[in-house]
Design brief:
Elements lengths: L16 H24 L5 H25 L19 H23 L4 H25 L14
Helix pairs in contact: 1-2, 1-3, 3-4
């Protein structure tokens, strides 16, 4: 008796041109997130610094996963990025962390409609993870409201 061959993974489904472009945007924001956490991390201490390190590692892992998915279409990271706001203390570091996660959430939300199958699950998981992390950073900063309606939705 022969065993059936394994079906191709749903995440290996080809991406449309739109899906590739939107994932490339999300990948660029992952590069920026890794950079931003490197800048803001030293302004945090204790459990907040641990959370920042964990977030940076999550973004590195996700960046690598999306790079592998996009292959030759993956944009390369820059040596540095202009931050949307200066970081000079704990409060500004927490605000930047929430802003970074909101940007990542928005990029992955935009990619949802252009992906399917396993690729869409990757995108949805990334969007939810970033939205939850943004809410956690806002709570840590004492910002209210701590959550936003429809995370990732353009204003």
């Amino acid at each position: 008796m022969t065993s059936p061959s394994a079906a191709p993974s749903a995440s290996e489904a080809p991406l449309s041109a739109d899906g590739t472009a939107r994932l490339a945007t999300a990948l660029d924001l992952e590069h920026q997130a890794v950079y931003a956490y490197g800048v803001l991390g030293p302004y945090l201490s204790g459990s907040l610094r641990t959370s920042a390190r964990t977030a940076e590692e999550t973004h590195r892992t996700r960046r690598d996963k999306i790079e592998a998915l996009l292959g030759d279409a993956a944009p390369t990271g820059a040596a540095g990025y202009a931050l949307p706001q200066p970081v000079k203390d704990k409060a500004s570091a927490l605000a930047l962390a929430a802003l970074v996660e909101d940007g990542v959430t928005t990029a992955y939300r935009a990619a949802l409609a252009a992906t399917s199958g396993g690729n869409r699950k990757i995108v949805l998981d990334a969007m939810i993870d970033a939205a939850n992390r943004a809410a956690a950073w806002r709570r840590a900063a004492g910002t209210t409201p701590g959550t936003v309606s429809f995370p990732g939705r353009p204003a």
